[in-house]
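Batch job 17 of 40 flagged for manual review because the log was empty.
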Amino acid sequence: MLNIPVKVTDRLIAGIKKFQPILTKARDRDINESDTVVIINDVLSEVFGYDKFEEITSELTIKHTFCDLAIKLDGVIRLIIEVKAAGMVLKEQHTKQAADYGSNSGVDWVILTNGIEWKVYKITFGRPINLELVYEFDFTKINVKKQGDLELLYYLTKESMVKSSKASLDDFHLQKQLVNRFTIGQLLLSETVLDSLRKQLKKLAVDAKISNDEVKQILVDEIIKREVFDGDKAIEAKKKVDKMFRSQPKTQPNPKHDSSKTDSLKKEELN
């Protein structure tokens, strides 16, 4: 749980209460994109804490085209915001447009929004360029009494974006990469965890013959959902877990110990 400063919490709550009805009416009236940009500009200032005249710009040119809005801190563009009309449904083509703005400007965080829906993307520059939807939320459904809802907004605030922040979008992204069903699933299937599970099972029945393969098969067939270890995200998670284990130093035997006793203990564990 984030420790959001009281003054930021108060600003978020006040801003949510103010702009939820404004955005709902804007959607119902089906206002155009330009008018939606005006509202988003106010949201960035009054909710997220950016200086309207110093840190929010609509003058960023990307390949001879102006993006809708951008956040500039300490002379560096940190966020690009692609805005669509409040009543428009966000589509894949809009996502591609936002991604193009980010990739062509070298900015790795991009937001696509119509004021109601907010989609936060992370761009990883490589070959090919990768666009990842880190999280999304409906502004009109944010509950001011739920800490988790406030945290979703906090990561977009100026306080989170400054260099000294201990809870930035990059930190949140890293946590999302690690604490998810794919990474945890691959850890459960690792030899280290399988060894531990087998040893615990042996304590229940000392004479039982149990192998890591048997434990793994039960996890795969009966406990873990197939989507957790199948597909691109599972493959990526497995690469990370395998790399982690390869980077760990191998345990060296203690020369002070009697090697014959060590060998005997190992044989007992394997049986």
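Reviewer: the log was empty due to a logging misconfiguration, but the result itself is present. Residues 181-249 form one domain. Unflagging and moving on to job 18.
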